[in-house]
Amino acid sequence: xxxxxxxxxxxxxxxxxxxxxxxxxxxxxxxxxxxxxxxxxxxxxxxxxxxxxxxxxxxxxxxxxxxxxxxxxxxxxxxxxxxxxxxxxxxxxxxxxxxxxxxxxxxxxxxxxxxxxxxxxxxxxxxxxxxxxxxxxxxxxxxxxxxxxxxxxxxxxxxxxxxxxxxxxxxxxxxxxxxxxxxxxxxxxxxxxxxxxxxx
Length: 200
Ligand SMILES: C[S@@+](CC[C@H](N)C(=O)[O-])C[C@H]1O[C@@H](n2cnc3c(N)ncnc32)[C@H](O)[C@@H]1O
Description:
Blueprint: H1 6-14, H2 27-35, E1 42-46, H3 52-59, E2 63-68, H4 71-84, E3 88-92, E4 107-111, H5 114-132, E5 138-144, H6 158-165, E6 169-178, E7 189-197
Parallel strand pairs: 1-2, 1-4, 2-3, 4-5
Antiparallel strand pairs: 5-7, 6-7
């Protein structure tokens, strides 16, 4: 399947064709923040969509920057943040070519962006990861899972995650869970990968 362009992502939001957008904070994100006792700090979300998880992170005391290439998604995210009184910096950006400088973040979060952009410009995304992190930065990536038999998001094999993210991050675990989707009963099989940036 070819990679979608920013214009195509934007069209999905304009047409409200966003089956990934559950409208609720990711239970897996909540579980990992609690289990791994991730203290509030500077957080960056890749491909934040309509901002639900970025706003959730802000509600937990994180100072959040959230990136997306879709102006439609960002407009919805800003509106949601204004409605809830959340303070999040939503920025339009291509996560495979971050041209502005960022102070390294403490925590990186990705739900469904890496599994899309890796197919078009993995090297660009890896370069961005290096730019926005420092040794010790933690990263939670939630991706599609190649073991899923049905339709669903782009699929990734565990060995691909290890090969693509392992050189920069020490991978603590990769485990299966299911994405929440707007139409239950059962979301698609996914990977949750928790990592810490290596030194060097
Ligand atoms: C599957 S959606 C997930 C959205 C959100 N994380 C969620 O869980 O609802 C992937 C998101 O990544 C964004 N995206 C795709 N390619 C991107 C790129 N190169 N740079 C920035 N955002 C991108 C899309 O616009 C979309 O919002």
